[in-house]
Amino acid sequence: MKDFLTMVKKLYYRNYEDSMEAIKEQQIPCAYFYPMEPFEAGNIDAVWEWGMNVTTICTWDKNVGEINYPACRVVGLKEFLADPREVKVMLLHTQMWLPVLDKVLAPLGVDSISLGHLQDAINRRDFMFDNLPRLYDTYACFGQEESKKAYLAAVIGNVSWQIRDYHFAPEPQYMLEGFLPQENDIAIDGGAYDGGTAKLFSSLGAKVYAFEMDKKNYEVCKSKAEQYGFVAENMGLSNVEADAHYNSGGTASCKLDHGAETAHFISVDAYVERAALPRVDYIKLDVEGAEQEVLEGAAASILKWKPKMAISAYHRPYDLWALREYVSALCPSYRFEFRHYPIDVTDYWLSEQDKALLNEYGLGYKIPTSCETVLYCY
């Protein structure tokens, strides 16, 4: 309870709105990290008009010559790291992977804050406050201190928009000791993408059934399935069997009523019956916000076999408690743990140009973001 109350206090003084107001009122010297070209001065103008004391524009060294903004010192990242001068806060452009810069800013005593829409931040803060009892109920379900620490950090980070507030696990995603599929287990991989996790589970000796609705992703997944001996299905998982629309977006392909593409969806329970699977031992879900739908379509299997589960819990703000609540209501004997992972971009997501920048500045391929939180059920 003490740690939870400490988190609540932080929500009051470390939320995005109040942090930005304090920076503005105290006129704390800020830098704005602008990563892209061509340069658009309007982004900096907007921060100035908000009242921020932006003294420096920082960018990748190759872009320095493209930026002309006389009111600010313009420097490449290497020069900034060698001499940040008076800067105490780095305002990060909205590009999702830029929080990785905190790794090199923190040793300089420079805070980093991801810029975003103020009203969105206020709404998120208020939503968390409105649901504190449900957050606490889920927090109290975790057995490991590491789970409690990661969970409270996820709540704070969602409100502060500061990557340093999160607590990331050291192991690869889904690889938490005691929560892996075992040899001869039957494993369902929902949202298989390119088959990377299915390959991993298959290497542990599990019989893996990987579901990927996106046609392009499926072709890559199918190639891995043929090579590594798992089953790949070009279907999405849901709570009903039907054709439905989706948006194709690589790792972020998602079911969408007005999406341009169409796929077939099936429930886990229907697939188990049709494929005559003798049981289900493990379920992993990363289905872009449809996790509860899939759990509803797996209810009979969950009740019958109580599989271990690893469920993505970040696509919707209420996933932080609603997914746990659903599983607990369905099968009260489940216990839970929680972890937060950086995104490993070694083989996907970023372009080769972006990866070259990570290499140039020694930033590594593990990108900390607000995403990739996992609810483990056992």
Automatic annotation (TrEMBL):
GO terms for biological process: methylation. Pfam families: Methyltransf_21. The keyword Cytoplasm does not apply. The keyword Methyltransferase applies. Keywords: Methyltransferase, Transferase. Transmembrane segments: none annotated. Residues 189-321 form the Methyltransferase FkbM domain. One of its GO terms (molecular function) is methyltransferase activity. SUPFAM superfamilies: S-adenosyl-L-methionine-dependent methyltransferases. InterPro entries: FkbM_mtfrase, SAM-dependent_MTase, SAM-dependent_MTases_sf. This is FkbM family methyltransferase. The lineage of its organism: Bacteria, Bacillati, Bacillota, Negativicutes, Selenomonadales.
